[in-house]
Amino acid sequence: MRKLISTTLLLVLCFTAFGQDEQNYSSTIRVQFGGAIPTGSFKSKSFDEEYPPFAISGPLLQVNYARTIKDNWAVGGTFALRRNPFNLDKFAPKGDELVLHTDSEPWQSVFTLADLYYQHQAGLNTLYLRGSLGVAFSRRASVTVDTSFGTIYRAPDHGVAPAYGLHAGFQQNYSRFSIGLETGVFATRPVFEVQGSNATYKQSMATINASMFLAYAF
């Protein structure tokens, strides 16, 4: 009988300790919306370049998952959709009498990334750094300009390339729910085909990002 009681108590203590250890781990889902500002060659509007992208600021949507693994460290993943319109006003000014009609589809990247977080808790606030590595599925902007002498058309193209991100964030916690701000960069460099030939070129697609988010911890 004593042996049975002792075994039972030992099992209870083991499960209790395991449960307490599990409570030290927390998961968080963040939904972010903000803007992405092109930087580097991605923002070029110079006709002196062979393939100027004419990218301008556009929306950025992110969904992040993070799970604390030890002390201040967490791992997770990010799905992000970034769209940067083509600057038609610079490419074909509306005041140009030769331009009859313009249309375009934006530059677009879909990111799937693995994340590593360093987090610091300060009262009800959380500060964090997030490094990301993964893949981006990108689409080149398409452009149509109808003129008195014919149509100028730049066709879309698709490319897959490695991608990375580095972000810093501030989070105000209210029990399970939180709100916060995040800023950082996303970058990828896909290969696109030169229109009308078999040649290819690499296009840097880097942006500086700023977002607001709502988070839920569980």
From TrEMBL:
Segment forming the signal sequence: 1-19
Q: Which UniProt keywords apply?
A: Signal
Signal among keywords: yes
**Protein name, please?**
Outer membrane protein beta-barrel domain-containing protein
